[in-house]
Write a structure and sequence with these properties.
The structure holds three protein chains of three kinds.
Chain A: H1 5-24, H2 45-78, H3 94-122, E1 130-137, E2 140-145, E3 154-157, H4 163-166, E4 184-187, E5 192-198, E6 203-207, E7 212-216, E8 222-226, E9 232-238, E10 250-256, H5 258-279, H6 285-304, H7 326-335, H8 351-363, H9 375-383
Helix pairs in contact in A: 1-2, 2-3, 6-8, 8-9
Chain B: H1 20-44, H2 53-80, H3 86-125, H4 152-156, H5 158-162, H6 189-212, H7 216-247, H8 256-289, H9 298-323
Helix pairs in contact in B: 1-2, 3-8, 3-9, 6-7, 6-9, 7-8, 8-9
Chain C: H1 11-17, H2 21-49, H3 60-95, H4 103-122, H5 150-177, H6 190-221, H7 235-269, H8 276-289, H9 305-317, H10 319-333, H11 342-365, H12 367-373, H13 377-407, E1 409-410, H14 413-439, H15 454-484, E2 486-487
Antiparallel strand pairs in C: 1-2
The chains are: A alpha+beta, B mainly alpha, C mainly alpha.
The complex binds heme-A (HEA) (2 copies), dinuclear copper ion (CUA) and copper (II) ion.
Residues 36-37, 40-41, 43-44, 46-47, 67-68, 70-71, 74-75, 79, 134-136, 380, 384, 387-388, 391-392, 430, 444-445, 464, 467-468, 471-472 of chain C line the site of one heme-A.
Chain lengths: 384, 324, 520
Amino acid sequence: MCFDVKRLYALALGPVLMLMSLVSTGVWASESERSTVNMTAGVTEVGQQIYDLHMLILWICTIIGLLVFGVMFYSIYAHRKSKGAKASSFHESTSVEIAWTVVPFLILIVMAVPATKTLIEVYSFDDADLDIMVTGYQWKWKYEYLTDEGERVSFFSNLRTPQSEIGNTEAKGEHYLLEVDEPLVIPVNAKVRFLLTANDVIHSWWVPELAVKKDAIPGFINEAWTRPLKEGIYRGQCAELCGKDHGFMPIVVNVVSQEEYQTWLATKQGEAAQVKELMAQTFTLDELVERGKGVYERSCLACHGAKGEGGVGKAIAASAIATGEISGHLDVSIDGVPGTAMQAFGGQLNDVDMAAVITYQRNAFGNNMGDLVQPIDVFNHKKG
Amino acid sequence: MTSQTSTEYEKYYVPPKSRLAIFTTIGLVLSVFGASHVLNDMTFGDPSVETNSWSIFLTGLFVFIATLFAWFKMTIKENMAGMNSAQLKKSYVLGMFWFIFSEVMFFAAFFGALFYVRNLSGPWLGGEGEAGRMNSLLWEGFQFSWPLITTPQDAVGGAGAQLMANNGTYLGAEKSMAFANAHAWWAWLPLWNTILLITSSFTVHIAHSGLLAGNKKKFNLWLAISVTLAVVFLYVQYLEYHEAYAEFGLMLSSGTYGSTFFMLTGFHGFHVFMGMTMLLVQLIRSLKSNHFTAEDHFGFEASSWYWHFVDVVWVMLFLFVYIL
Amino acid sequence: MGDHHHGPAKGLTRWITTTNHKDIGSMYLWFSFAMFILGGAFAMIIRAELFQPGLQLVEPGFFNQMTTMHGLVMVFGAIMPSFVGLANWMIPMMIGAPDMALPRMNNLSFWILPPSFIMLACTLFMDGGAPQAGWTFYAPLSTTYAPPSVTFFIFSVHLLGVSSIMGSINIIATVMNLRAPGMTYMKMPLFVWTWLITAFLLVAVMPVLAGAVTMMLMDVHFGTSFFSAAGGGDPVLFQHVFWFFGHPEVYIIILPAFGVVSQIIPTFSRKRLFGYDSMVYATASIAFLSFIVWAHHMFTVGMPVAGELFFMYATMLIAVPTGVKVFNWVTTMWRGSLTFETPMMFSIGFLILFTIGGFTGLMLAIAPVDFQYHDSYFVVAHFHYVMVAGAIFSMSAAIYYWLPKWCGRMYNEKMGQLHFWVSFVGFNLAFFPQHFVGLAGMPRRIPDYALQFTDFNMMSSIGAFIYGAAQILFLYNVIATIVSGKPTSEEKTWEGAEGLEWTVATPAPYHTFETPPPVK
Ligand code: HEA
Ligand code: HEA
Ligand code: CUA
Ligand SMILES: [Cu+2]
């Protein structure tokens, strides 16, 4: 049962392994450019510490591995029967066994000390310069700036990659799947605290370069923080399986200078005030349908289909609700259908957008109802 | 039947081929398949559509129970025929012991859930502790206390509850089953149930000592008393559930207090029912067929262990669900 | 499997009504192989979809069902039953017992499995599709947001639990009660030891899993609020209960594999196992520690920092007893007289790749760093190193090692070596690059990915196909051996083998040790 090729195999095994462990040590330095083979150190102090820890433990494991496998390969090489090796009979040695229990234990302590330090730092949430509430939805993120002055800025951040790129009918862009319609904007060098929660299932907010990954759990608020030291655009993804489009809820964070941030914030606050004004206005059917089409594509299409044909959600085309009483349509859209994927959109869309999307649904996909819903109707309906 | 040839080694009886397992499987699988359909009809189904889910479930259950009956009958017959060596009997003892251990772990899961919601997640939702300090942003006005009568959803009410509306409706209750809510100690049913169960553990023990002393009469009498106590326990449990539902508005859906209360006491009640059935079967065996001797009565012994286990679980329940 | 002297009934009823541990063992092994192919087919769909960015083959929802079913079928259908099958075959023969302690229940434990997996697989064809929340089925994705098929899933998990619990009770009773006179605990082969401890773990944690799915069932159908904050519960409670089961579960998977390797390495080193006693203690310590580390899967859920630290330290500690095992195996080879038949090759493969997987496990255990690893492909790489190169490699080793004893025929060594090398290369090609994409930020459980992950994913898919193809070779080799392998009647197939199983005739007669053998 002996083969000549076998020796060759065993000899080949060594280099293969050596190569592999070399590769695994990440000889690639990781500056701010994101490496495709190793963890990023990111743009925060904590991220750097985490990266250093990662490399430390990787090196320790590599060295232990080389020692252990070295011994093993030596016996494979030298103590083979085909070379006439005779088996010795030792099978116990208390001192050796104690040694290789105690030494790894000491090595573990060496790892545990810096790990504990970093962990405690990750957990120091206080003294933040800015608080942002992050809410996970199936399948988008909502950001709400908890600022003390001015209008509260709050918006949803949806995947921007078009369906055609995902379906391979069009060439994929540079930031395929990692681009959103509206990124989170935060100032550089500031301690930003995130308050994370979710509306439906568990999501997880992960941006590697900011060294933040924290679960967003419905009904609970988790804290996390970051202090980016460099301006730039950082991308991440939802990191907890949250249903069908878990792979399609990216995160983009735009880290900008203090001044830029202030300007941006002011603009957003202005927009928020504007929407408030719009709420009091009366629109024509065409205005509502046009606005509603956009809202539909952003918020409803994923479940109700491009032609209102349904999918995860029921069909809108010829739906009894979308062609029935307006109040029923308002009910479903604002309060959702408990226990189904149909969420309560009342908290997600402002009254203008809600009025628009309902009007759109009633007048598109062959539902030519001809009636319309004004923002004030939505407002009144919400009040009960 | 085996004939003993060697005196040194009593042969370990390896049963020949048997259909029992396959029938048990058929029964078990049919019943869970049927049960799944029954539940899905209830939650997702259309009430106007007739289904045969119940008949599948009941057929399965019937096959399962009938096979178990045949199985135990066969085992008893083998033992009566002297086929079971001392070693084989020890296998049964071990089997029963580790089965009870697995049951302990099953209850542990639910007790664990109880401790978790009482001591960790509940207070966190109320804004207490390191992990909960921001939660008042979501559940404004919710104060945690146990028993949880007002759920977080109740506390915020209306629009605030909207956020979580998709996760169900939990209405809370009016009153809990805790001692504080009983209008007088003698009207507090759990106390009586505790007394009943602890007494029954003693009566089973007396029956056992009767058997060991060869006093069959004593055995039958005290075993019958134990079974009666078990039945009374189940009746009192029924009264308590009725009170909870009809008078206190406490339901499975009343938030975590209702959930843990009914799951723990419900599973316990089911185990009481099983234990009672086991004891009853032993009683019938003893009365009808005079099965037990002072030396050989594993069927009874196993049932009595099970009974003591059910009793211990109750004591834990009494402590953690009703008193503390 | 194989031809036996006397006893077995003829035809299909033999298998349905059998109480023989060897028959039942064979059924377990074949069943688990079928599940391995099924789970493997799901994996192939996953890898084919991930071959390129963009959606090519499947819908995202279906992809999630594939991931979920792949994990469930592999863990509960392929690995666990395969080792139970091995236990059935080998434990009575290794301790000199006439059969398992409770043979009829043994048959029941097996027969519950196929219908419950059929029920699980059928969920794929139900309205709304199969469960889609991952093999860890976190609430509320698995409760409020689950398709109706979740009810069937829950009950099939109950049945698997029942089967596992009965199987383990049987193993415990057998080992504690049926050892031949003189076979003291500290003389038992290590495979028996590791299984005894595994069985304890199973009896302790399978009921907890049953509890977890029961709570899900109640949340879905009866309005309880275990996992819903609105009623005072917590989705994270599910994770605690699940991982209290789930972490011991991963050692349930690996401990019997340790046992197998501890049998094979001494045989082909022609030398006694080094440090037998410390192996036993290490196994027991791993089992004990496995109960207090579960929350290392939950570092990112927002536990208080004290909990985080506790679970980090406890998890790191597992490296010590596991290290003892690795060192013992290497020292067993040291100054032995080594030959490299297929079982040994797979054991060496196991030793190397499991250790690498253990190292990445240790990295994951470092809580602050896990914030970057968690739910990325780095984790996927970690657990395939320990589960595929750990459990599946050792299972392959075990089959080659004992197959001649079971059926009295020798497998084709050349094909065995080929199987090993193709598996080894394919496996590493498939899973080593996953470390890189994981570190670079690719989340797991996604059907589509950003462009920078393309190259490594392609490599990974190609490797996966190669590894899968190698298993066809394996299947062929095993069948060919049983049908037309070179007959062998040597009691001791392997020169260096020790133990009672090598004292009985080859092929092993239908009934062995009707009276206990003498034990040295
Ligand atoms: C067979 C299964 C198996 C085994 C044996 C292990 C072994 C280990 N696992 Fe793994 N693990 C899984 C299966 C397994 N795991 C699975 C399935 C998951 C993912 C589940 C999911 O989410 O789907 C997972 C996930 C997982 C996580 C969670 C990651 C995350 O989701 O963020 C963690 C974190 O701590 C972890 C740690 C460990 C550790 C420390 C070990 C240790 O036991 C390893 C010990 C071994 C060694 C360390 C090597 C040998 C030792 C030496 C040579 C001694 C000297 C060494 C030193 C002192 C460094 N595992
Ligand atoms: C012991 C368990 C085990 C085993 C053996 C495997 C084996 C394999 N696994 Fe996996 N895997 C898990 C347990 C296991 N896995 C778990 C628990 C998860 C997590 C699930 C979750 O996220 O919830 C996971 C997840 C997982 C993922 C991540 C999915 C995701 O996150 O979206 C991937 C991706 O590459 C993968 C790949 C593979 C591959 C290529 C194999 C290969 O080794 C398989 C090779 C075997 C075969 C291919 C069968 C041989 C037969 C044939 C080749 C015939 C083919 C027949 C037909 C096609 C009809 N597995
Ligand atoms: Cu949101 Cu995954
Ligand atoms: Cu674990």
